[in-house]
């Protein structure tokens, strides 16, 4: 079982005000990436779709259930998929590797460093530019910023 659904792994139960929100990181997927009108950010292991310009709501968060918004407390730099930076507040369960929170807001999308030594051939550069453009546009829809991730 994932540590975030196992209440015996909770290190601390916190009440975090919105102005003191904790930073988290989440690996996600993109729903309808080629449909400009219906692109959405979605959880990678369930069907939850993040609302645009709204808080993600994990209402019903209790020790004995697996509800809530799951996020790591460190950046998964070794994963090559869509990654976002998030802020968490409300009731928050702290685990060794992350949080399960009542409320979550996506604040940043990670894009690829276009100057990386890995992007030397034309096809890879074309992919990186397309990927970054897609995420930069999606970040605007979610009222977020982007962070450039370097593979150096």
Report a brief summary of the structure.
It is built from one helix and eight strands. With 152 residues, the protein is mainly beta. Strands 1, 2, 3, 4, 5, 6, 7 and 8 form an eight-stranded mixed beta sheet that branches.
What key phrases describe this protein's structure?
eight-stranded mixed sheet; 8 strands; 13% helix; 1 helix; 152 residues
Tell me about this structure.
The protein has 152 residues and is mainly beta. The chain has one domain. It is built from 1 helix and 8 strands, in the order βββββββαβ. The chain is elongated and about 50 Å long. The model has no long low-confidence stretch (mean pLDDT 81).
In whole angstroms, how far apart are the ends?
Answer: 34 Å
Helices and strands: which structural class?
mainly beta
Major beta sheet summary: 8 strands, mixed
Q: What is the number of helical segments per DSSP (H or I, 4+ residues)?
A: 1
The helical percent reads 10-25%
Strand content: 35-45%
Which shape, going by the Cα principal axes?
elongated
Q: What is the residue-averaged pLDDT?
A: 81
Number of domains: 1
Uncertain regions spanning at least 5 consecutive residues: none
**Strands, total number:** 8
Q: What radius of gyration results from the CA coordinates?
A: 16 Å
H/E order of the elements? EEEEEEEHE
